[in-house]
Amino acid sequence: MNTHRCPNIEEFKNILKKHSLKATPQRLAVHEAMMSLGHASADMVTEIIIEKGTTKVTVASVYNILTHMAMLGVYDYRLSANNKMYFDVNTFKHIHFYDQENHVFKDVIDEELIELIEAHLGRKKFRGYKIEGIDIQLVGRPTKKKYMA
To answer: Are 107 and 65 in contact (CB under 8 A)?
Structure first.
């Protein structure tokens, strides 16, 4: 399985340099927030940065940075049921569990399930389409017990 961990700050700076981008305080603050959050919307990242109080940002600038980093492959992204874009520091193949009540994503690592699904769908033909990837998302809501906390 192709696994990839989130780049640390030094690796992130090297990625920026490779793409001729400056390691601005805003970009570094966004990445630091993403490293702590894992999955987050621009609002969530902005809130963390503002709480820390070391860098001035707007939600729009944070969203632009997150989107740009996703286009470079540093983050992945997905749209939630509440129509908000969430970014993910994990870019390797994994399953997402989406809590539709709290609008939170959690990673589910199950290589065997992913391999089974890919093998099964790899044999299927979809007229007029070529499958470029498989994105598995489980959707649920909390029960009284906290199983995934």
So the answer is: no
Number of domain units in the chain: 2
103 with 35, same domain? no
Q: Are residues 132 and 115 in the same domain?
A: yes
**What is the C-alpha to C-alpha distance for residues 97 and 138, in angstroms, rounded to an integer?**
5
Q: pLDDT truncated to tens, each residue of the chain (149 aa)?
A: 444 578 899 999 999 999 999 999 999 999 999 999 988 999 999 999 999 999 999 999 999 999 999 999 899 888 877 788 989 888 878 888 888 888 888 888 888 888 888 888 877 888 898 887 788 888 898 887 665 55
Q: What is the helix (H) or strand (E) element at residue 97, kind and residue range?
A: strand 95-99
- In whole angstroms, give the CA distance from residue 27 to residue 35: 12
Q: What stretch of H or E contains 68?
A: helix 59-71
State both tokens at 46: 């902005």
